[in-house]
TrEMBL record:
Role: Catalyzes the N-acylation of UDP-3-O-acylglucosamine using 3-hydroxyacyl-ACP as the acyl donor. Is involved in the biosynthesis of lipid A, a phosphorylated glycolipid that anchors the lipopolysaccharide to the outer membrane of the cell.
Reaction catalyzed: a UDP-3-O-[(3R)-3-hydroxyacyl]-alpha-D-glucosamine + a (3R)-hydroxyacyl-[ACP] = a UDP-2-N,3-O-bis[(3R)-3-hydroxyacyl]-alpha-D-glucosamine + holo-[ACP] + H(+)
Active-site residues from the entry: H266
InterPro entries: Hexapep, Hexapep_transf_CS, LpxD, Trimer_LpxA-like_sf, UDP_GlcNAc_AcTrfase_non-rep
Protein's recorded name: UDP-3-O-acylglucosamine N-acyltransferase
């Protein structure tokens, strides 16, 4: 079976170009000198790789002491790292000195593999596929790509440069901005989507929120008449669900990144540049400020407010409002230091020998 290269290199990049893009200082280089009268060819970067799998032509980075041994055995052409770690790098590897190696690597990788920044057409086509179902009243700007099996309802509007994946469903009157990617089998109803939004396969936006009025005869369904509004530069992971609002809109703020398998309830308002990690859940009518981070499998109870810049540790349960800048953990969530001290104390008690 032949090996597939799913993300082709845009072009080989000289090391000086990579350094300029990342704002790095070049230090050191391979041993040996060119023959008299010859010029040494500039090192070219052909790919990216982890430290322990690297080989000549690769670019890598070092940002965690856990990989100290792998750094000492690195065989890449160049490596981003901080100056204080320079003595750990083999002499044959060019050092690219930066303050933030992970950020530098991200910039370089985006330059080398731009196609990996957002999903493309899975059918590798242009325009509307003959196998797609586009309603005559839908409005698509020039440059929209629609893969086979996609369904676009009446009144939907889709901006130039947007890609609609196979079997995706775009409901009536949905608005999608420019340069977006809507993954395979995603469904969008009752939604307004900004520019440069990435929605990964299987995501569901705009379905009913969980709204029922209890009565003696059972639960009475409450109509959910709001929308989902997703602002520019948001990314939504695979199989994430975002309910439309009941009486107001569910809003995802600019630049927010939502991981796979996240549940966002109705009427939730999430601020700008938040990070919500996989398997988290936010119950209805919560308001989350800008730059908030929710760790994996964390849960936020309904009708709460989380202040700007707060951080919630993984597997935590938030049951009361959090002020700006709070750091909490545990279930119920409490200040992180107190949670960690309590966990350490419980562990010490559990280790004690049983009384005779």
């Amino acid at each position: 079976m032949s090996a597939a290269a799913f993300f082709p290199l845009a072009r080989p990049a000289p090391l000086s170009e990579i350094a300029q893009i990342a704002g790095a200082e070049i230090r050191g280089g391979p041993d040996g000198a060119p023959a008299p009268g010859e010029l040494a060819p500039p090192p070219l970067i052909m790919s990216v790789a982890p430290l322990d799998w690297s080989r000549p032509g690769d670019l890598c980075f070092y940002d965690n002491p856990r990989y100290r041994k792998a750094l000492s055995e690195c065989r890449a052409t160049a490596c981003f790292l901080r100056e204080r770690h320079l003595d750990l790098l083999p002499n044959a590897v060019v050092a690219l000195l930066v303050d933030d190696p992970q950020r530098a690597m991200t910039l370089a990788a985006a330059h080398l593999f731009p196609d990996a920044l957002r999903p493309g057409s899975l059918f590798q086509s242009s325009g509307v596929s003959p196998g797609a179902a586009v309603h005559p009243q839908a409005r698509l700007e020039p440059g929209v790509v629609v893969d086979p099996g996609a369904v676009i309802g009446p009144g939907a509007e889709i901006g130039a440069g947007t890609i609609i994946g196979p079997q995706a469903v775009i409901g009536p009157n949905v608005r999608i901005g420019r340069d977006c990617s809507i993954g395979a089998h995603a469904s969008l109803t009752h939604a307004l989507i900004g520019d440069r939004v990435v929605i990964h396969p299987g995501a569901r936006l705009g379905q009913d929120g969980f709204g029922f009025a209890p009565t003696r005869e059972g639960y009475l369904k409450t109509p959910q008449v709001g929308r989902v509004i997703v602002q520019d530069d948001v990314e939504i992971g695979a199989n994430t669900t975002i309910d439309r609002g009941a009486s107001r809109d569910t809003i995802i703020g600019e630049g927010t990144k939502i991981d796979n398998l996240v549940q966002i309830g109705h009427n939730v308002v999430i601020g700008r540049f938040c990070a919500i990690v996989a398997q988290s859940g936010v119950a209805g009518s919560c308001e989350i400020g800008d730059f908030v981070a929710l760790g994996g499998q964390s849960a936020v109870a309904g009708h709460l407010t989380i202040g700007e810049g707060a951080a919630v540790a993984a597997k935590s349960g938030v049951m009361r409002d959090l002020p700006a800048g709070a750091r909490v953990g545990g279930a119920p969530a409490r200040p992180l230091r107190r949670f960690l001290r309590g966990a350490a104390l419980l562990d010490r008690l559990a280790r004690k020998d049983k009384p005779t």
